[in-house]
Design a protein that fits this description.
Layout: H1 2-14, H2 23-30, H3 34-42, H4 47-65, H5 72-81, H6 88-97, E1 137-147, E2 150-159, E3 164-171, H7 176-189, E4 197-200, H8 209-218, E5 221-224, H9 234-246, H10 256-271, H11 285-298
Helix pairs in contact: 1-2, 4-5, 5-6, 7-8
Protein name: Integrase
Pfam families: HTH_21, rve, rve_2
GO biological process, one term: DNA integration
Length: about 300
């Protein structure tokens, strides 16, 4: 009965035209009494109803704060992190009631231009994108972003330990220096272990002599996946999917400079520090790194 009363209340509140049905008409159509409806409407909300409304406000606020990028699992995780005792299925149901649907990823498009290496390079990762400590296994890749001035190319280096973007570079070209600049940033800002694995696809930039020399300079081991198999570099592809799905596809960049600034903010302020990852136990890359550092100090 309460569902019918709630439907009447919702329709009555949303009615803005003269032809809209009256309460009397709706109660007759739904087979409920008019007096029963008004008695229900005058009743103060129950504790459970108040709780649901409070949760709806918190859910909607979180959804907006993450630009619609979070589905019910991450929204639930954020609520739990904030001290809320709520089930995942209830969050899912309330998001449906609020018509909150997370942005959906677009299909993967291959962007790699295969290189022709002088010698074979092994795949040292074999789709295992995990590590037991920072700086021992990283992945790199390139993508492109559309601006009114033309394409902006983005290269990244991601640490497999905590999925953190530790190096990146952006330019209007795809020359090898784009990926070496990203690698240089990673090596300068983070401690990469001797013989750290640096994994990538077989793009021309990653198979070049210049890139190989840079790896040797930093004491890193090269690893590459198979040509055209995106799963062999899934962690790097996953980051670019998040970047585009959660940010780039909702923006218009008049200049490359505007795109660079926005992407840098996404990486530094959102992805590394605010975005929780299911693979990290719904923690952020920054939190995982700090926890590791604290554990080392306490040891």
């Amino acid at each position: 009965m309460s569902e019918k009363y709630a439907l009447i209340a919702a329709e009555h509140a949303a009615a803005h035209v003269a032809e809209a049905p009256t309460v009397a008409q709706m109660t007759r159509w739904l087979g409920v009494s008019k007096s029963g409806y008004y008695e229900w409407a005058a009743r103060p909300p129950s504790t459970a109803e108040k709780r649901r409304e409070e949760l709806k406000i918190k859910i909607a606020t979180l959804f907006d704060s993450f630009d619609g990028a979070y589905g019910y699992r991450r929204i639930h995780a954020e609520l739990v992190r904030a001290g809320e005792h709520v089930g995942e299925e209830l969050v899912r149901k309330l998001m449906r009631e609020l018509n909150l649907v997370a942005v959906q990823p677009k299909p993967y498009k291959r962007t790699t231009i295969p290189g022709k290496p002088e010698q074979a390079v092994a795949d040292l990762v074999a789709r295992d994108f995990t590590a037991d400590k920072p700086g021992v296994k990283c992945v790199g890749d390139i993508t492109y972003i559309k601006t009114w001035e033309g394409w902006l190319y983005v290269a990244t280096v991601i640490d497999c330990f905590n999925k953190e973007v530790i190096g990146y570079a952006m330019a209007e070209h795809m020359r090898t220096e784009l990926v070496t600049d990203a690698l240089d940033m990673a090596a300068r800002n983070h401690q990469l272990e001797q013989d750290c694995i640096m994994h990538s696809d077989r793009g021309t930039q990653y198979m070049s002599a210049e890139y190989s020399a840079t790896l040797k300079e930093f004491g890193l081991r090269q690893s590459v996946g198979r040509t055209g198999v995106c799963w062999d570099n899934a962690l790097a592809e996953s980051f670019f999917a998040s970047l585009k799905n959660e940010r780039v596809h909702h923006m218009v960049y008049p200049t490359r400079k505007a795109a660079k600034e926005d992407i840098a903010r996404y990486i530094e302020l959102f992805y590394n520090r605010r975005r929780i990852h299911s693979a990290l136990g719904y923690r952020t890359p920054h939190e995982v790194r700090i926890e590791y550092m604290n554990s080392q100090l306490a040891a």
